[in-house]
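hey so i finally got around to running both of the ones u sent me last week. sorry it took forever, my laptop kept dying halfway thru and i had to restart like 3 times lol. anyway pasting them below in the order u listed, first the sequence line then the structure token line for each. didnt double check formatting much so if smth looks off just lmk and ill redo it

first one:
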Amino acid sequence: MTDPSFTTTFTVDQTPRQAFDAISNVRGWWSEQVDGGTANAGDEFTYRYRDVHHCTMRVTEAIPGRKISWLVLENYFDEVEDTTEWVGTTIHFEITEDDGRTQVTFTHRGLVPEYECFENCSTAWSFYVNSSLRDLITTGKGQPNDKEVSATQAG
């Protein structure tokens, strides 16, 4: 039986360490609206996208050049009945090297087709991982969500 969790994979010419460093730079590929550490086991960070989605993650594993894993501690979606669908799910980035190329496999274990958010979430992850993260690894510039500026900050 195969795991129905969302998974996607891409390959780049950069080193496993370059891939690891880019993945750890969550602000560089997912969102500039991230607070907290994102690179070391035990770090916790909060992601926010407007009032639509916010979550808190704990980095549970960080092995440079090999893997990074996160546990979803808290989650909120505004567009689904069960706003906590991600709570308790895990996100894994596996990094392998083959014939001088680096493969990154992303799995959101627990994000399954039965979830109301599955279609939107898998589409979003596909963009952030296969486009934005890949761009950050290969060019040094990802496509993260911009940091929101509050009305008081805007002046």
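and the second one:
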Amino acid sequence: MRPADLPVVPGILSARELRRTAESIAAAQEPDGAIPWFTGGHTDPWDHIESAMALTAAGLWDEARDAYIWSAKSQRDDGSWPTQLRAGVVENPDADTNFCAYLATGVLHALTVTGDTAFAAELWPTVRAGIDFVLGLQLGTEGEIHWSATESGSSGEALLTGCSSIFHSLGCAVTLAERVGDPRPDWAAARDRLGHALRHHPEVFLDKSRYSMDWYYPILGGAVRGAAATDRFSRHWDEFFVPDLGIRCVSDAPWVTGAETCELVLALDAIGDTATANRLFAAMQHLRETDGSYWTGLVFTDGKRWPEERTTWTGAAVVLAADALSRATLGNGIFRDAC
């Protein structure tokens, strides 16, 4: 990748600064390719992919490839992944449907950025098995998808944030299927049903409205656009926005978090509000450390960083938000329906 292709947000972060953030993610990567939350921490399949996407956007393709190969090697026979692993040991064997769908987003992003069709074809069976597993849990009356599966069966509950992310992943999966020559119209139909539930049947989802993700994820995932998205933002903006710092993770706690703030940046960019997105991106830079890594959050009533960890997925959200704002790589529109 040429230096000119690397993300840069003028006046906020340079290409070199963003490269250092990606390098801080790569520094935590384990020998088998897994990317834990931080060195010595646990790995989950969703945040692992988010980190791989950031490595791709920053030009660290070898490290990103290793991460995707880890996903392929750690997939179970039913197409799922365990929710949590640490140093290769499963700590939580349950399967989260959102986690299992997200590889489709990552592989489409990798293909779009690098043009490596052979690698996408190599990962395709893994993506296909993961999506088929997820859609096997589309058991709700309105098209919603149960959020987890255990040895005793599904959870019986659907989460708005998780299903919004799955909606996005299904769109990526449908596009990827076409690009590798294995069209899946059944996936497109399942996505349409899920989108209908997200837009018109909020009652089928477990109430998690105190979390900012339930506010912006229907927009980030692409289920809500246009006037409905603008209205959704305006109705809850004051609940979550903290001037000069970012957004709250939960509405009733004085805690701003970097990853949620950057995901909101991506959602704002997706509906064309780049001015607000840039201001918000600048505001969260107080979480940046000198090595390019990012603290997870800040309790703004006492000025303490909490939790006291610098997470790879927070840095990844920064890189992906920067790429979207800068339009740097060919994958900059992965959350803007441009891929």
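quick thing i noticed on the 2nd:
The beta strands are 84-86, 89-92, 95-96, 148-150, 153-154, 241-242, 246-247, 255-257, 297-299, 304-305.
anyway thats it, ttyl
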